[in-house]
Write a structure and sequence with these properties.
Elements (H helix, E strand, L loop, with lengths): L3 H17 L6 E6 L2 E7 L2 H4 L6 H13 L7 E7 L3 H9 L4 E6 L6 H4 L9 E4 L3 H15 L1
Parallel strand pairs: 3-4, 4-5
Antiparallel strand pairs: 1-2, 1-3
Helix pairs in contact: 1-6
């Protein structure tokens, strides 16, 4: 059975794919019964869609993989703290667990809507946080 670090490394791989495409480097994977059922990264620039965050893409792919909209037996691994929009989608999907790497003090849901997740959703923060934050910092440093 893989651990949180293993799956966060998978999400980091997705984040690097986003960066390679000129997207903000956020990556996500959804795990169900110790198996990755969805992989995604930001596609907001590619799709010209402000809602195309990694989490939203991963939730849609996971729901399609399972054939249902509720993901209560699943864990979402995402490299950066979800925004309020994504937290709302995570709540509607009734995600069983959310694990994120780097905190997002400017736009993260914990600042604006700390109760946004479903009450039964377990939250784990800070997994590989330095590596996740470093990827974001490097991306924005190169763009300036």
């Amino acid at each position: 059975m893989a651990d949180d670090n293993f799956y966060m490394k998978q999400a980091l791989s997705e984040a690097r794919k986003a960066a390679d495409r000129g997207e903000v480097p956020v990556g996500a994977v959804v795990v169900c019964r110790d198996r990755i059922i969805a992989r995604a990264h930001n596609l907001t620039e590619t799709l010209n869609d402000v809602t195309a965050h990694a989490e939203m893409q991963a939730i849609t792919a996971a729901a399609n993989a399972l054939g249902g909209k509720y993901l209560n037996d699943c864990t979402l691994y995402v490299t950066v703290e979800p925004c309020v929009m994504c937290a709302g989608a995570i709540a509607w999907a009734q995600m069983g667990k959310v694990v994120f790497g780097a905190a997002d003090e400017k736009r993260g849901f914990l600042k604006y809507a700390p109760e946004a997740l479903h009450p039964k959703t377990e939250l784990v923060q800070g997994v590989l946080a330095d590596e996740c934050a470093g990827l974001m910092k490097d991306f924005f440093r190169k763009r300036r």
